[in-house]
C-alpha cells in the first residue's frame, strides 16, 4: 500500500493554497447543499473584542459569521492533513446547531469548540490577545462537557472531540493531560470497535473511512505520548486489523501532499503511521520491562534492528520531500507538516543511537568527559576518567544534526504549535554539534567547524529567547549548561591546536557561571518530562496550561 508516488496526475500541488482555490466561495447552506460563489472568506478575520463566548449552564457560541471562517480555515489547512472530521458531516452538524436551537447537545458543542481552538492554535498568523482568549475559552468549553464525551457510544463525535483536546494538549512541557485523554480515547474506541475491520460492515464507505482515519490518528498520538513519557502503549498491534490510510481517489486528497511538479506525492498520515510504528519499537527496545532484562548481545541486536528500520523510513521518502528540498515556495503551508514529519524521524534517529538530550545517562557521560576541559584543576583531579561518549555512528550523527538545524531555519518562529513539538530535537542537535567540538581529539571532524559555530550560536539565541519567554528554569539550566559546554569545547580546540599550556583560572570568570555543576544543569532538563506536574512552570503560552480534566458540567 503506497505512501508515496510519482504518478502523472492532472492536478496542481496540493497545499493549503490550492485547497483555498478549491474551497473559495464555498457556502454551506442550512440544508447541507454546497454552492460556490466568489468570496474572500479566507482572509484572516479578527475576533471582535466583545465576543459572545459560551458560559455555563447553556451551550452558547459566537454568531455564525464569526465561527464559520475559523471552521473553514481548520478544514482547509489542518483537517486536510489530519482528517479527524468528515467535513460535510461536520458542516451539516454546525448548521443544525445554529438553525435548530432545541437540538444542542454536549458532544456537538465540544466538537465545535475543539475545531475552533485547533484552528486558532494552528494558525500562526492569529496570535492576538483576543484570539488567544477565545481559543482558551473554547478549550474550557470543551472540557466542561468531558463527562458526556467519555460516555458517548452512539457515534464518533465524543472520541473526535477528545482527540482534538489531545492535539491541543500534546504541545508544551507537561504531557500528562494529553496522556490521560488518549487513554480515555482508546477506551471509547474499543467500545466502538474502531480497532476491528469487521465493524466497517455496518457503515457506508464514507463513514467507514472516517472511522479508520480517527483510529489511525489516535494510534499516532498515543505512540507519540508513549515515547515521550516512556510509558507502555495501550493499543497492541496484534489486537487490531484496521486498514491503513490509503490514496485511491483523486477527488479525496485528505493527507496527500504533492510536490511542486504536481506528480510526486506523499501520504502524510501513512508516513506518520509508519513513524508511529517505529516509536512503538523504540518503546519495546529501550523502555519496556523486557528491554531492562536484555543481555548485552540482545540489546545490541535490538538497537541495530531499530536503527535499520529508522533508516529505511528515511530512504522511502521521495527526493522531492527530503529536507534539503523543503521551502515555502514549493509546499506553501503544507511545509509545516513535512517539517514535523522529518523532526519525528530525527527524534527516532537520536533515540535509536542513544544520543538524545533527554537521555540523562548519555548526558552524564558527556559532562563527565567534559570535566577534563573545565579549566579548573580541582574539578579535573576529582573527576573519574570517562572514555569517549561518542557512538560508532558519530560521523553520521553529526551530519544528521546539521541537517536538522538547517531544516529548522524554514520554520516560522510564530508557529508555536509546531515549535512546541520540535524544539527539543532541535536543541539536541545543537548539543551534538557542541559535543563534536568538545571531542575533537577523539574523532577529528574538521570540515565546516566555522559553519557549525554559526548553527550553535543560532541555537543558543533561540534557547535563550524561549527560556525567557516561557519563564522556564529547566530551559535556563540547559542554556547555562550549553554555554559551559561550549566554553569547554573551546578549551578542547585550543589543546588540539597545540596550545596545551594555555593557563586557565581555577575559578571561572564567565558571566554564566553558576553554583550548579554542569551535570546538574543538564540533568534538570533531561528528566523534565518524567517529573510530576507540580514541577512544571505554567507560562500561559500553551493550550495545556488551561487543561482541567475535572468535569464542570451542570446540566441535567
From TrEMBL:
Coiled-coil intervals in this record? none
TM region(s), chain numbering: 66-85, 161-186
User: Domain Xylanolytic transcriptional activator regulatory, which positions?
Assistant: 178-251
Q: In its UniProt record, which GO terms are filed under biological process?
A: DNA-templated transcription
Q: Which Pfam families match?
A: Fungal_trans
Q: Which InterPro entries match?
A: AtrR-like, XnlR_reg_dom
- UniProt keyword terms in alphabetical order: Membrane, Nucleus, Transmembrane, Transmembrane helix
Source species, domain of life: Eukaryota
Recall the GO molecular function terms of this protein's record.
Answer: DNA binding; DNA-binding transcription factor activity; zinc ion binding
The name under which this protein is listed is: Xylanolytic transcriptional activator regulatory domain-containing protein
Amino acid at each position: 500500500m503506497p505512501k508515496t508516488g510519482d504518478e502523472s496526475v492532472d492536478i496542481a500541488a496540493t497545499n493549503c493554497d490550492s485547497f483555498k482555490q478549491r474551497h473559495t466561495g464555498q457556502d454551506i447552506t442550512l440544508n447541507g447543499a454546497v454552492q460556490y460563489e466568489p468570496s474572500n472568506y479566507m482572509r484572516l478575520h479578527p475576533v471582535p473584542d466583545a465576543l459572545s463566548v459560551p458560559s455555563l449552564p447553556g451551550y452558547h457560541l459566537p454568531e455564525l459569521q464569526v465561527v464559520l471562517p475559523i471552521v473553514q480555515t481548520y478544514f482547509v489547512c489542518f483537517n486536510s492533513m489530519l482528517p479527524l472530521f468528515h467535513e460535510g458531516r461536520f458542516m451539516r452538524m454546525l448548521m443544525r446547531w445554529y438553525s435548530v436551537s432545541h437540538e444542542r447537545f454536549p458532544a456537538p458543542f465540544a466538537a465545535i469548540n475543539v475545531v475552533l481552538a485547533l484552528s486558532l492554535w494552528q494558525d500562526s498568523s492569529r496570535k492576538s490577545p483576543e484570539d488567544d482568549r477565545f481559543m482558551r475559552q473554547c478549550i474550557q468549553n470543551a472540557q466542561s462537557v468531558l463527562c458526556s464525551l467519555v460516555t458517548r457510544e452512539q457515534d464518533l463525535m465524543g472520541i473526535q472531540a477528545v482527540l482534538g483536546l489531545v492535539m491541543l494538549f500534546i504541545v508544551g512541557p507537561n504531557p500528562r493531560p494529553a496522556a490521560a485523554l488518549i487513554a480515555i480515547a482508546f477506551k471509547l474506541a474499543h467500545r466502538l470497535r474502531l480497532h476491528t475491520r469487521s465493524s466497517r460492515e455496518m457503515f457506508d464507505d464514507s463513514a467507514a473511512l472516517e472511522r479508520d482515519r480517527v483510529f489511525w490518528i489516535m494510534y499516532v498520538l498515543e505512540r507519540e505520548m508513549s515515547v515521550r513519557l516512556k510509558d507502555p502503549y495501550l493499543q497492541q498491534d496484534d489486537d487490531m486489523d484496521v486498514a491503513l490510510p490509503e490514496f485511491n481517489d483523486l477527488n479525496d486528497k485528505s493527507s496527500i501532499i504533492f510536490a511542486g511538479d504536481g506528480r510526486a506525492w506523499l501520504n502524510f498520515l501513512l508516513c506518520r503511521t509508519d513513524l508511529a510504528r517505529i516509536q512503538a519499537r523504540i518503546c519495546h527496545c529501550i523502555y519496556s520491562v523486557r528491554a531492562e532484562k536484555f543481555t548485552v548481545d540482545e540489546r545490541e541486536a535490538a538497537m541495530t534492528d531499530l536503527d535499520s528500520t529508522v533508516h529505511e523510513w528515511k530512504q522511502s521518502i521521495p527526493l522531492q520531500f527530503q529536507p534539503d528540498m523543503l521551502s515555502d515556495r514549493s509546499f506553501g503551508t503544507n511545509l509545516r507538516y513535512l517539517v514535523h514529519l522529518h523532526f519525528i524521524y530525527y527524534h527516532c534517529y537520536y533515540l535509536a543511537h542513544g544520543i538524545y538530550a533527554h537521555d540523562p545517562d548519555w548526558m552524564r557521560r558527556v559532562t563527565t568527559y567534559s570535566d577534563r576541559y573545565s579549566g579548573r584543576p580541582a574539578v579535573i583531579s576529582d573527576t573519574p576518567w570517562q572514555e569517549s561518549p561518542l557512538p560508532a555512528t558519530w560521523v553520521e550523527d553529526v551530519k544528521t544534526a546539521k541537517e536538522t538545524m538547517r531544516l529548522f531555519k524554514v520554520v516560522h518562529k510564530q508557529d508555536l504549535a509546531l515549535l512546541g513539538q520540535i524544539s527539543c530535537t532541535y536543541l539536541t542537535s545543537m548539543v551534538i554539534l557542541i559535543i563534536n567540538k568538545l571531542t575533537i581529539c577523539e574523532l577529528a571532524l574538521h570540515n565546516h567547524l566555522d559553519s557549525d559555530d554559526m548553527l550553535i550560536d543560532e541555537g543558543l539565541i533561540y534557547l535563550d529567547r524561549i527560556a525567557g519567554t516561557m519563564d522556564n528554569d529547566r530551559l535556563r539550566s540547559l542554556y547555562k549548561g550549553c554555554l559551559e559546554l561550549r566554553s569547554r569545547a573551546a578549551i578542547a580546540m585550543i589543546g588540539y591546536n597545540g596550545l596545551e599550556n594555555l593557563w586557565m583560572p581555577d575559578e571561572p570568570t564567565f558571566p554564566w557561571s553558576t553554583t550548579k555543576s554542569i551535570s546538574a544543569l543538564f540533568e534538570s532538563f533531561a528528566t523534565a518530562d518524567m517529573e510530576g506536574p507540580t514541577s512544571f512552570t505554567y507560562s500561559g503560552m500553551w493550550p495545556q496550561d488551561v487543561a482541567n480534566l475535572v468535569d464542570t458540567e451542570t446540566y441535567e
